[in-house]
Amino acid sequence: MKQLRPKALISWSSGKDSAFALHEVRRAGEYDVVGALTTVTETFERVSIHGVRKEVLRAQCEAAGLPQVIVPIPYPCPNVIYEAQMGEAVARAVQAGITHIIFGDLFLEDIRAYREQKLAGTGITPVFPIWGRPTLPLAHAMISSGMEAYLATVDLKKLPAEFAGRKFDKQLLADLPDGIDPCGENGEFHTCVVAGPIFSRRLPIVLGERVERDGYGYCDLVMVDETFSAARRRAPADR
Predict the structure, then answer these.
(1) How far apart are the first and last CA of the chain?
(2) Backbone angles phi, psi at 172, to 5 degrees
(3) What is 7-234's CATH superfamily?
(4) What is the DSSP string of 32-92?
(5) Where are the alpha helices (DSSP H) in 120-166?
(6) If you write DSSP's letter for every residue of 162-203 in order, what string do you get?
(7) DSSP class of residue 3?
(8) Per-residue pLDDT of the chain (239 residues; tens, 9 = 90+)
């Protein structure tokens, strides 16, 4: 009899770290990943921190073949509300037979300890498949895998606003100022994945408006109507 794999959720931020963690877990085949757990700020209808639109998030999950598990939070969000909402999501996951949550954390010990503490005794075990990997080789591995991502958010204390919207590629890594982690693990930037080995197709994304708010620079990533785009490509050149 074939042994059933443990059911897991991927903690899905919309960015490259969670995407690559999912890629590694799928390659290893140890877990059955049955959903993508994402906090969404209701005020903006966007992925928390990353600022990615809900429709982009939905398209990511469809391309990855993962049901969405949305945790809604307000803005601003006191920690007590965040923890209550996450606690309810974890309880529902346990009821659904899920035993693990996969995280894309890299080296921040306090973040890992927080996750382990909050999940202790819940019936959910945290998994950190890319933990401790040196971030420059890891960034190159992400790019070499075929993953395509864009910087959706930058911390203006650490990076100029014009980095928002840039592609996460080798040129970006070369252009990062000294002291900036190649994977942005210290919060320097956050990304949105639009293509890669975990997706069945590339998302039709274009770069939209750039704004600055609360010390962060954002580049809006906008889904393109594929029917319109295809028709436009077939249309005669404008005269």
Answers:
(1) 67
(2) -60, -45
(3) HUPs (3.40.50.620)
(4) EEEEEEEEEETTTTEETTT--BHHHHHHHHHHHT--EEEEEE-SS--HHHHHHHHHHHHHH
(5) 135-144
(6) GGTT-B-SHHHHHHSPTT--TT-TTSSEEEEEEESTT-SS--
(7) P
(8) 456 999 999 999 999 999 999 999 999 999 999 999 999 999 999 999 999 999 999 999 999 999 999 999 999 999 999 999 999 999 999 999 999 999 999 999 999 999 999 999 999 999 999 999 999 999 999 999 999 999 999 999 999 999 999 999 999 999 999 999 999 999 999 999 999 999 999 999 999 999 999 999 999 999 997 543 443 333 333 32
223, with CB counted inside 10 A (0-12, 13-18, 19+), is: middle
Q: What is the pTM of this model?
A: 0.92
Q: How far is CA 133 from CA 10, 73, 122, 184, in A?
A: 19, 31, 28, 14
Give whole-number Cα distances, 67 to 92, 113, 147, in Å.
14, 27, 21
Element of type H or E holding 232: helix 226-234
C-alpha span between 132 and 102 (Å, rounded)? 15
Residue 67 makes CB contacts below 8 A (sequence gap 6+) with 34, 35, 36, 61
> Under 8 Å CB-to-CB from 45, ≥6 apart: which residues?
53, 54
Contact 126/100 with Cβ under 8 angstroms? yes
51, HSE (Cβ side, Cα atoms, 13 Å): 25
Q: How far is CA 136 from the centre of its chain?
A: 19
Q: What is the dihedral of CA 13, 153, 208, 223, to 10 degrees?
A: -10
Q: What are the boundaries of each domain within the chain?
A: 7-234
